[in-house]
Design a protein that fits this description.
The chain is an alpha/beta fold and about 325 residues long. It has 13 helices and 13 strands.
Length: about 325
């Protein structure tokens, strides 16, 4: 009787291992299946590209040995927390946090499961780390979407040397946006511009805040900001008729409402994050000592339609956004 009970218990354990995929290893010591939880803050072109790059990299490396549980938080931080906690409860092998709010939620949910961020502008700001050295020292690393802020300020100066007042339009709920605005403001004020902040709490405030900015400023700067990126049509409907040009922190925002940007490839940083995940999962790399990585190349790009409509002449060295 005891032997029958033991046999049944062993069969149950084997079946559980087959269905959970957790702790299931192949003969070479690697797992048969890696379960990856993906939390993306909101659906828009840049974040979508980063997620695709991440999945492509891991699929190329692992084939059918990787499974993705892809969740979208629809721009809600509370939903990010719910998703992250679900990933922890299900015992995923790694979490991809696509944007700052998912990174912060994942960091609060676990200090053991590896977390890789992407489309995160500044990890020190997002995670409240002082004396930043390039690594977090905890179970978090990833890639940054930060294009050089000093070069963004120089681009505004190049295109609008006679402007006097620059409006900084951004979401106050995004710490990385506040960081970018602070750095770009310092650079622009050093060039003689007056900068004024126009922050909105969420997408419901964007139209009214943007209207105030167009009434008081010569040029608007929008940093890499997820809330703004999801509402470029609203911003464009306010700023373009008013004849106020926008310098954007990333290509997706520029394509929707801007005149020029210093562009990176979100697909590329997502792909690089996927390669980092492979090193952690398969080769045992220590995430605590993995340096946050940045896009290797930046490109000056411009929005042909809006530039033509506003009569803005773009100098040589810029590529048209397709």
């Amino acid at each position: 009787m005891k032997k029958k009970i033991m046999a049944l218990l062993m069969m149950g354990c084997m079946a559980a291992a087959m269905f959970t995929g957790c702790g299931n290893t192949a003969g070479n010591g690697s797992k048969d299946t890696y379960n990856i939880g993906i939390c993306q803050l909101v659906q828009h072109e840049a974040l979508d590209a980063a997620t695709k790059g991440f999945k492509d990299a891991l699929t190329e490396k692992l084939g059918d040995k990787v499974r993705f549980d892809e969740q979208n938080a629809s721009g809600d931080s509370a939903t990010c927390s719910t998703i992250a906690n679900q990933f922890v409860s299900s015992g995923v092998d790694l979490i991809l946090a696509n944007a700052t709010a998912p990174l912060q939620s994942a960091a609060s949910a676990t200090n053991t499961i590896p977390i890789l961020g992407t489309s995160v502008t500044d990890y020190a700001t997002a995670l409240s780390i002082d004396n930043w050295t390039g690594t977090t020292g905890v179970n978090i690393s990833g890639t940054s979407d930060l294009a050089p802020l000093s070069e963004q300020a120089a681009m505004l100066k190049e295109l609008f040397p006679d402007a006097k007042t620059v409006g900084m339009l951004y979401c106050s709920a995004e710490p990385n946006s506040e960081y970018q605005v602070r750095v770009v403001t310092e650079a622009l004020e050093g060039m003689g511009y007056t900068c004024k902040n126009y922050s909105f709490a969420d997408s419901n405030d964007i139209a009214s805040v943007a209207t105030n900015a167009t009434n008081e400023c010569d040029v608007i700067y929008i940093p890499t900001d997820n809330t703004a990126a999801s509402a470029t049509n609203v911003i464009d409907n306010v700023c373009r008729p008013a004849g106020i040009p926008i310098i954007a922190g990333e290509e997706g925002i520029c394509k929707g409402c801007g005149v020029a940007t210093l562009s990176i490839s979100y697909y590329d940083i997502g792909y690089q994050t996927g390669l980092m995940a492979y090193e952690i999962l398969v080769n045992g790399a220590d995430i605590k000592t993995m340096e946050v990585q940045y896009a290797p190349n930046v490109t000056k790009k411009y929005n042909v339609e809006i530039c033509n409509e506003l009569g803005i002449q773009i100098p040589d060295g810029y590529e048209a956004i397709e």
